[in-house]
Please model this.
Amino acid sequence: LGSIVHKDPSYIIGGWLLLASMLWLCRKRRASTGVLGVVLGSFLVFIAPPWKTQPPPGLFVAVFGSTQAVGKEVVYQALQRGMKVRALVMNTSKFLTPEGSAANESGQNFSNPLLTVVEGNATIQEDVNKILTKGVKGVVVCLEVNRTNRTANIIAAMKQVKAKRIVVVSSLGAGDSKSRDPLHLNNFLMTRTLKEWFGDHDTQEALFTNTSAPGEKLEFIILRPAKMTLNPPTGKVKVIDEGIVKGRIPAADVADWCLRALSEKKFKYLRQT
Model:
């Protein structure tokens, strides 16, 4: 039961309390209610709720941008959790285990029977289609360049196989978060030097957020992380809704958040940026 045993303390405590109360009802001869409660309480204590479980056998996660810091972490962490992963890679020599989560095993070639690697380019629809086949649990997109065109191809392929959930790693300063990036204090840098870079992020996000956009009806989550590091994961992610976003975050923590967004059926930030 390694993949389904629930470890949330509040959930386990609630289950034990329900189990105890139902046993008390049994002693009071309210047998039918008590027996039902015992069964339900036992389920709560020992078994994870459906929205917390790992993907069933046969389902997989597709990763685009898997040679980038977040992409490597997503692949590595998903494999560590027993998920099947399919990754589209342009340069396999750069597809190495991440520095943050892999620690002493970082910088090595990925080797795992749960991993399928396809060499190709997301600008080519046929290459994207090789990754997104039936059985995809969700998609993580963390592209470095030419994001808009590549993401459009990914959306098209998702529709063909009726995939729904997608997490897009964008950037702080994209879309309506420009005023929340410390870079906005240097307006010249924001609007001139990085104009095309942020513009590509903006149009990529618009593929989901605009009315009648091709990805509008998908279960998208757009993540705009602060400046990322290659440090080990901390297990702490703070979602900031307003104000200037300061500080840094390990790419390993961003990847963990992405996998949570794929695995939790009723994820809190569904269809949000």
